[in-house]
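Exercise: predict the fold of this chain.
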Amino acid sequence: MTHSSRIRMLKLVSLCSAAFGLAMVLALATPLGAALNLFIDLAFLPVDGAQALTPGAAALMTAISGGLMCGFCVLIYLITQHIYAKDPALGRRLLIPALMA
């Protein structure tokens, strides 16, 4: 894999992950909630509709984790664009521990 294809892949994955995090936040106040409920139902098999986000602690934790995920992915995108593209060694030292954590 070339350096330019790594940059493209990191940017694409970070944008897709940021979009998912933003969708998690927006699902609590928009019709995206049905899609998030399906995702939650898939995470807690069997698919029976028993799990759902109701107002309360689960909805709050979903909003917080979605916001953190979106912000972290934007940070990865910016590190990739401004640091990793110009200095791969420094970019690797910044990105690998964060991605592994």
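Check your answer against the key: The longest helix spans residues 57-84.
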